[in-house]
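pinging the channel bc i need a second pair of eyes. not urgent but kinda urgent?? the chain im working w is below, pasted from the shared doc
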Amino acid sequence: MTGERHTTDAVPEPVPGGKPAPPPRGPTLDDWAARGRTVREQAEGTRSGHERASPLPAADSPGPPGPPGESGESRRRAPSPDDPMVMKRRTALKVLAAAAAVPAIGCEPSARTADAAASGAPPQPESNPLAAGTLTDPDLLAPLVPWDMLLTEGEMATVAALADMIIPADERSPSATAVGAHHFVNEWVSAPYEGQARDLVLVRGGLVWLNAESVERFDRTFSDLSDDERGAILDDIRYLPEAAPEFRTGARFFDKMRDLVATGFWTTDEGMVDLGYQGNVPLPSFDGPPRDVLDRLGLS
């Protein structure tokens, strides 16, 4: 309901004595209360053995009484999206669907462990009881990926070899695979969403292309090549705008893999140290921006 009056275009006729006719009357509180009871009865299944009524008047129903001159057709209205009853029902359906999809949320850690053991799933680490998590605030201390990983063992070997060519270990930080960036790639392309499904096709096709190119050049798959041999292939696909026509398919694949590996690496603690990123760190106090920063911005 939006608070609008249920009115018609009819002009009230004056009555003898000069007094205007009473204003048109819309549905009363009793009418809406009756409709609310009908909705609740349908939702709770308490009307077994009786004909289930519609929460609003049926198409051939005269509807609640209206003012003189108002037709039954004008009184029959579809429920507004802003109707509180519609909103409550929609919200309830969303909550029920979410609860069915994530049955473990809100359970004690021991209950989640017991459920996982009964289902045969690998056990999950016990969570901090103060961070049990909700649908919109997941438990980051005991993260759970609710979908299966799709890349095969052979595909993951190629992904790992390529990831360490993109971000190798050096004096500043470990390699991409040392922090699990290749597993992030698998988790990403395995996610049951439209964008990730497209990425899965691109990544799997690119892995096939990469191994075929490796066998053609060096008679071995990519994961079995030396770093120099891998680099010779990657030099031809490193930058899509400059790739030769026969290497553009591989360049599109490498462009996606470079983004995924970089994302997986630089969102870890080790990757943030490599960047020199100092955010997300609790401070006992904050004394404001450093003086040199304020001077540089002209704010001192």
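so The chain is about 45% helix and 0% strand. and The chain has a mean pLDDT of 73. — does that match what u expected or am i reading it wrong
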